[in-house]
Amino acid sequence: MSVSLVVIRLELAAHSPFPAGFQYCAATEMSEEEFREKTLCSASAALAGKDPVEKAALLHQHLGRREMTDVIIETVQSGADHNKSAMSNKTSEASYSVDQSKDEEQSARRIGAVPDSPSKQLPDQISFFSGNPSVEIVHGIMHLYKTNKMTSLKEDVRRSAMLCILTVPATMTSHDLMKFTAPFYEVIEHMKIIRDSTPNQYMVLTKFNTQTDADSFYMACNGRQFNSIEEDVCQLVYVERAEVFKSEDGASLPVMDLIELPKCTVCLERMDESVNGILTTLCNHSFHSQCLQRWEDTTCPVCRYCQTPEPVEENKCFECGVQENLWICLICGHIGCGRYVSRHAYKHFEETQHTYAMQLTNHRVWDYAGDNYVHRLVASKTDGKIVQYECEGETCQEEKIDSLQLEYSYLLTSQLESQRIYWENKIVRIEKDTAEEINNMKTKFKETIEKCDSMEQKLNNLVKEKQAVERKCTQLNSKISKLSTELKEEQEMNKCLRANQTVLQNKLKEEESERKEMSEQKDMQITEMQEQLRDVMFYLETQQKINRMPADTRQEIQEGQINIEVASSTSSPPSGGPGKLSSRRGRGKRGK
Questions:
Q1: What is the pLDDT averaged over residues 545-570?
Q2: What's the pLDDT score for residue 479?
């Protein structure tokens, strides 16, 4: 038995909190950063370099008509794990309280103060939690993707330790679900019951201890009835990854190597190749054969809209407005024209990777990934009822031949028309390009002629300037030769003047030395003449004074003697003192 793995993605609104413990990846060697980069690489590339308005438009385009609702996630852990976690919490709280009391006693002892009363030691605020801590409510959309990996249960390969029960009837309570999984309760790590706004059923994610336990549960419970009264069976799939992302991060954008599966709006079962049939009505409600077995009317089981095989006037392509050859997307309800009109339905698949689309005229479902029809139920051409698509005999062959001829004629005419339009447009573009090139060449030719004229004028001007410069150069060369000869003469004269300067400097030095000697001799002579003049003046003055004196006095002077005292080495007579006078007198006497 071969099984395929699925990826469950929970797209959250901007204000919604993240659920605890929801994320899961079967590849345990991947880190959280590598896991996020792998899952959001295509979305990041699509949103890169766009402003907020473009990002919002792109997200709205991929989200389509789907709306976010409240999703209730209830976590049920196994008894052993739950008791261990509770005991660990209690022991940690008790140890914390004992340590806190010891610290308070030690601090009181150090300070030496009496501790306060217990009422004063209580905190101002006490944190508490009301309600069931294992139930979380978020706001978003659940996405289910199918991988291309097919593995056999007999092969020893890594699949996943998590299984998903896609459809559990709402009549089954949590207690009934525990009874259903009771034989495997010891190997179950935890279970997450996911309920959204869709009625009558919910989804369950079950995480086992090992992959072997998950395989045994799959072999025992897949396809088994929940109880003997109801016909609902347990449908299990292996979960490769369980992701939680915000809508603004591109959670609704297509994921690489994954195909998002549509779901039936009646029973909410995901429509895959394992179901009996796929059908989406004109009112954008999808069903499969199990939901329509007991429905005998042509109206929609959800909204009672009358289904007819003919096209409705209100239906038209969302992009070009064409009302022929329309296809509706089974994922988001987008309506576009076929690939032989303007290819808007196929372009929607290329942009969003929504694989399944249904033709509105005959309700045939096309798979763009497999490039074939995958429907099993169609609307009858006679009464419009839903019947299984089967044909036998020559009528089937004729219908096939007619459909092939019609398809071929459509293809041929569309290709010829497209080729005609292509070549006409190409000829028009070539004519426009050639006309533009001719005009550009003419303008360039005129510009080149003008440039040539201007260059010739510049060349003549440059030739004239060159001749004038050459004349100036000859004149300057002659001047340079004259100046060089004059420079040589000046240099020789400068040498002679320098030689004369040295000779004159030597003579000047000799004359200065002679002048100094003569000035010194003259100074000595002047000093001697001054002394002689002073003696003469002194002599004359004394002679006059003596002549004025009376005769007795002159006689005494003549008979008198002059005694000259020898002056000591330390004391010197003052200038003009008695010593000087005595010397003068002696001289006067000698003169007489």
A1: 73
A2: 93
